[in-house]
Amino acid sequence: MPDSTPADGLAAGRRIALGVAYRGGVYHGWQSQPDRQTVQDRLEQALSTFADAPIVTVCAGRTDSGVHGLNQVVHLQTAVEREPFSWVRGCNRYLPDDIAVQWCRTVTPAFHARNSARGRRYVYLLMEAAVRPALEQGLAGWVFRALDGDAMRAAAALLLGEHDFSSFRSAECQAASPVKRLNAIHIARRGAYWRFDFDGVAFLHHMVRNIMGSLIAVGQGARTVAWMADALAARDRNAAAPTFAADGLYFAGPYYDAVHGIPEHTPAFDWLPR
Questions:
Q1: Torsion over CA of 54, 60, 66 and 68, rounded to 10 degrees?
Q2: Is 8 within a domain?
Q3: Which residue of the set 3, 41, 64, 199 is catalytic?
């Protein structure tokens, strides 16, 4: 009898896409691990309990320990018949308070949460203040030295386009190539908060946090704008600044061709300062 399991290892049945928001502080990242203390593990446990059948998910982009998600997109294959709103409410019943399914869509077999993505977005929220965060602890990075926004924007512009980002790649990165494309980096300030928006096709392990460390070094005057170009050209992790804290990093999610009908916005987007 031929094997009816799709190439991505999911069970036969209809394909469903979900949008998931989460606070990453207590989890060991997205990807399933033996200790089961990951967002994927908790999500799949909840989905399997709701569906009364084993559920396996494929995500758009793995996030590291401490990183938050605004609109992580996953797809799953199931023979279980439920209305979309039932997948949202039913799964959330079994999830901890810091993880929640935001939406559900039935998609065609051609849709793949990771491979169909045209790009991915990250947001870094940074607090500039003389005193460390309290209410924002774990939800925003922190610096106490003043930042020069124009210098950081000039340095960020040097990273746009397709480059070898080895200088901003962690030693644990498993990507086949360090060559990635950054489409845009936007930097804005509102009061004590800086918001950094990153748009790229794909990202290396710790890439955004390593870029953040370097942008802050430029913003605080420890490095020049030109140094950013030199660090990029060196293709050596030691040439760039240390990895910055995960606290303020949010995976804003992937985006797809409109034909798939995948939402690109959740209520959590409106919570972050613009």
A1: -100
A2: no
A3: 64
